[in-house]
Amino acid sequence: MYSRSILTSSLVILVCLSSPIEAQKDSTKNSAKYWSAGSKEIWQTIDGFLNDPNLTSASWGVMVQSMSSGEVLYKRNENKLLNSASLVKLFTTAAALSLLGNDFTYETQIRTTGLLEGATLTGDLIIVGSGDPTISGRLYNNDIFFVFNQWAEKLIDLGIMTITGSLVGDDSAFEQIGLGKGWQWDHLSDWYAAPSGALSLNDNAVDITLFPGEIGFSPEIDLTPLSKYISVINDVVTVSKDSTTKIEITRDHGSNIIRLSGRIRQNEQPYTKSVSIESPSEFFIQILSEVLQRRGIRIQGGWKTGSKTGSEINLKGTTLLFKHYSKQLSEIVRLCNKNSYNFYAEQLLKTLGLVDAGFGSTTNGLNVVNQYLAKAQIDPTGLKIVDGSGLSLLNLSSAEQYAKLLRSVFKSDFFQYFFNSLPVAGKDGSLADRLLDASSANNLRGKPGLNEGVRSLAGYLKTADNETLAVVFISNNHLVPFSYIDNIIDKICNRLSILKRKK
């Protein structure tokens, strides 16, 4: 669960907690040139870290494997099925690159049922969605309305200033169930649990910023994007500067009513949180309607969506006005993996189902992922995956399965795109704050995972003699802070990064 507003940030706070065993075993220093070790010494060293007495409750799945030779340097419970959290995104994005290709783009069609008479379009304007996750400010210098303003300009260029019919959202490409199986209900108002949809805007989330006011009064609120579709009930009170800030922001289940409660210090910096929205296609069309009208385009028939009316939108006989294309898949996968965006992963999963079976459902998408895993020599019946992001607590997979995936991708023609999508240790994405001063910084590209009682990491690590290793760590049921688990994993990666096996 990582920050939405800052691409390179993460919630990882690396706390160096040392146990007696760690102190004994961790002699890795930046000044060390290399660690010349054989198989036995490698095994004993990693065991020393994992046998930390503070981790007796933890269930580990670990695998370290050479990508060139296939030699396994270390394994522990490698076949044990565990919840790996966001490592599931590796299955999803690898399958997407394999099936769709790195240059795949989403296509959103703008169509009409009518004819243009002067400046008047007599009929409906229809937006046909295909699941594009990038209609937001994320790829357009934080301008949420960039794409919508482009569309407005194209309509104006066509001479359209009045639409006699309705603005219609065709969201039939995806199933209407936007949430994953096994997602925790108390997370559903958070941005990282935003629902998927064939028509989606701003990651299907709104950003709420609170500015402290006078003591005893409610803070001012900035809502982005501002829309009549969203209601905010503000019960936050500004308190004196010697008090503390404590704010709770939730969304009522099944609605777009957002409730703010608590207190904010008078001298506090503005407080910002992103909140998921209900009914993505309605959110999309409502805000598009508002943008078009601000640009002077009148819509006489209001707006509607297929999901809202419960009726299928018939495109037969409609006229294509223009198309909008997303950025290429390689860029979408990079955003998904670098920063662990659950929304992007769920959109990709349903896109796989749409391209393969003609309908974007989780079931159809998982069928494609399972087919891909089988080609990668991973038995899909030997694991349980229920979503595309890893947010579900029902997902179960093993360290060996991820090692097999990494080796299969290593040999594939899309390896470079997959590799480039992974966070670089000590540099960017969800690994920006880890391994900052270690020899593994810049030498480790990996995907971390975090969920309730789960911490994981999988990726590629380059050793001192330029050998590429797949490293997979999955920890469940630990009672220590996740930063403690990170510290253990990072110490192992530090040691492996200075490993020199060649004579």
- Tally of discrete structural domains: 3
The CATH top-level class label of the largest domain: Alpha Beta
Would you identify the regions where 5 or more consecutive residues have pLDDT less than 50?
5-25, 27-31
Helix-strand category:
alpha/beta
Outline: globular
Q: The biggest beta sheet, please? A: 5 strands, antiparallel
CATH superfamily of the largest domain: DD-peptidase/beta-lactamase superfamily
**CATH architecture verdict of the largest domain:** 3-Layer(aba) Sandwich
What is the first-to-last residue Cα distance?
Answer: 43 Å
Radius of gyration: 25 Å
SS strand fraction: 15-25%
CATH fold-level topology of the largest domain: Beta-lactamase
Quick tags:
single chain; D-tyrosyl-trna(Tyr) Deacylase, Chain: A; alpha/beta; Beta-lactamase; about 500 residues; five-stranded antiparallel beta sheet
Describe this structure in words.
- With 503 residues, the protein is an alpha/beta fold.
- It has three domains: 35-102 and 330-500, Beta-lactamase (3-Layer(aba) Sandwich); 107-178 and 279-328, D-Ala-D-Ala carboxypeptidase C, peptidase S13 (D-tyrosyl-trna(Tyr) Deacylase, Chain: A, 3-Layer(bba) Sandwich); 188-276, no CATH class.
- It is 27% helix and 24% strand.
- Helix 7 (329-339) runs parallel beside helix 11 (415-421) and helix 8 packs across helix 9.
- The longest helix is centred in the C-terminal third of the chain and has 16 residues, at 342-357.
- It starts with 19 loop residues before the first helix and ends with a strand.
- Residues 5-25 and 27-31 have low confidence and may be disordered.
